[in-house]
User: Fold this.
Amino acid sequence: MKIKFDLKPGINHIFIPVYINGKGPYNFTLDTGAQKTTISSALVEELGLETEEIVGEKYESLKEKRNLKRTEASLSVGSEELITDDVWAMDLAFSTKVRKKKMIQSSEDNGNEVKRVAQPAIQKMIRTTDSGEKVIQPTRGVIGYSTLKNYLLSVNYRTKILQLEKSNTGFTHKNQEQLQKFEYISNTHLVGIPVMINDDGPFPFVLDTGAGGTTISKKLHEKMNLPLRDIAVKVVGVYGAQETSMAIIDQMKVSTNIYENVNAVIIDESTIGPRAKEIENGILGYNIFREREIIIDYINQTCAII
Assistant:
């Protein structure tokens, strides 16, 4: 199955049209960093879907902060139903409140400069709640690991073509020979890629199509003693928004690809989600993928960035 996708301006998320129980389509984000395929709480309510509580102490904070629940729904792209083991319902909106003046939502390499996101692109996603709070509503849902694990996934950022092939079809990608074994980060669903930073490493980074830019952990940033850009950044994760700084990496080597003057947002992993403490080094995001093709064969646990 091939899908033409759009990149959401300002956050660089892959948007694909998804039908829910035959209704839609609704714009969903393709997110290899997400544990579960998720429908926004607002859309669940709009469609009248039933929900049930999720049992487990590790989900308590998400239940409190994001109204996390479980729901049942048939998801499809075009006429093809997606294989999905588990579907969550969760509040996917985020507060726009910030304390600092200089603020961007994501970044791109542009020579030695940081390209600021056009504000109109962000403004279109801002809604005002009944309580008067302004929130960013970037997506109606997320296609995550509980769906993707059943497929061979190809995301070509150059052509904006996404390909999902079922594991039982015997499909072989044209760049199959470039696929290499990957390891999941600790005991998670997160795909780990070895990364060299300024000829040091390798450090396992998470391959995350849901990340608007590349990030580096505070611990690794301090270890590498990387210089900072004079700019404040707002990053958004499942647990909310965080104001932080941006580091400059002279050189990153990912697979056979070499990147220079990479902007990497410094993150506190506790912002990202319940499994984030297991992300020791960082996350590879859009500024690494934007001229590449990502291939992940979840069944055979191989991947490539071409």
